[in-house]
Design goal:
This protein is of the alpha+beta class. The protein contains five helices and five strands. Helix 1 (about 10-20) crosses helix 4 (about 45-60).
């Protein structure tokens, strides 16, 4: 059963100034996520923007605004196949566990835009 849906779109160009700041990276991306994103070189900006959109989509699906959970607790990683998934920590993970929910994620980026779609399902 679907318990929540969230979507977000980010203009990659809008993220460029933020992505130049190490403080932004520390506040927004978890350690595993930073390691993954920093390996991507030219594709890093689009993937980083998609990950940021995924965090906002997750918060919307949960019915929370920015500040509902620490953004670095909402990590977005990739399977070997390239499929994205949420690797939640802290309060974000506890929230889903408490409510018996699983988070599914889809990402896309094209022509300077990054899109994320999150679905929360009752386990």
């Amino acid at each position: 059963m679907i318990a929540g849906v969230g979507a977000d779109m980010v203009r990659v160009e809008r993220m460029e100034k933020s992505l130049a700041s190490e403080a932004f990276w520390q506040r927004v991306f978890g350690a595993e996520e930073r390691a993954f994103l920093k390996k991507l070189s030219p594709a890093r900006k689009a993937a980083s923007a998609a990950n940021f959109a995924a965090k906002e989509a997750f918060l919307k699906a949960c019915g929370k605004g920015l500040g509902g959970f620490a953004l670095a607790e909402i990590q977005v990683l990739r399977e070997k196949s390239g499929a994205p998934y949420y690797a939640l920590r802290g309060a974000a993970a506890a929230h889903l566990a408490e409510k018996g929910l699983h988070a599914a994620l889809s990402l896309s980026h094209e022509a300077g835009l990054a899109l994320a779609f999150a679905v929360l399902e009752k386990s």
